[in-house]
Amino acid sequence: MPAKPLTSYQTTISPEWVDYNGHLRDAFYLLIFSHATDALMDVLGLDEAGRARTGHTLYTLECHLNFLAEVKEGEAVEVRTQLLAHDAKRLHIHHALYRPGKSASLAESEQLLMNIDSAAGRAAPFDEQVAERVAHLGAEQQNLQRPACVGRVIGLRRAS
């Protein structure tokens, strides 16, 4: 089976998430991606039981959002997650929002996550079991195409 991003979260757009323009309010894109990060944590062994066992959690250090298409009230959506890179303490991930079964992304989020020892309140290497799961997911997804939005910067070109 060819490698593919992990379908990490699915939901339907709630009426209270829709703005005055009739589409998903920008803050709720991030909420959806946040739930996808929670689901990724579950896959990696940092679910509630894993956090209790290790005393570790993930914090988001940086997040870039790209809004690519309108999403309307009542639409079903899913997030597909790709682990782009990792080291002993960090994950570089990409979430993309899709209509189920479709190939055009609606929004994308590139994120840098840090493993945190909750008791110490600072960065720490992943627990051995979590590190193994991270390495396994990284190996499964290593040949996936790098998403076009990854590494983009925000700015205006200066007039010459």
Question: In summary, what is this structure?
Answer:
The chain is of the alpha+beta class and 160 residues long. The chain is 25% helix and 32% strand.
Kindly describe this structure.
By secondary structure, the chain is α+β, with helices and mostly antiparallel strands. It has a single domain, classed as Roll (Thiol Ester Dehydrase, Chain A). The chain contains three helices and six strands, in the order E-H-H-E-E-E-E-E-H. The chain has helices at 26-44, 48-54, 128-141, and strands at 6-12, 56-67, 76-86, 90-98, 107-117, 122-123.
Structural domain count: 1
CATH homology group: Hotdog Thioesterase
Estimated structural class: alpha+beta
Architecture per CATH nomenclature, i.e. the level-2 architecture: Roll
- The beta-strand count equals 6
How large a portion of the residues is in β-strands, by DSSP E? 25-35%
- The number of helical runs is 3
State mean pLDDT (0 to 100 scale). Answer: 95
Which labels suit this protein?
about 160 residues; about 25% helix; 6 strands; about 30% strand; globular; alpha+beta; Thiol Ester Dehydrase, Chain A; 6-stranded antiparallel sheet
Annotate the secondary structure layout:
Elements: E1 6-12, H1 26-44, H2 48-54, E2 56-67, E3 76-86, E4 90-98, E5 107-117, E6 122-123, H3 128-141
Antiparallel strand pairs: 1-3, 2-5, 3-4, 4-5, 5-6
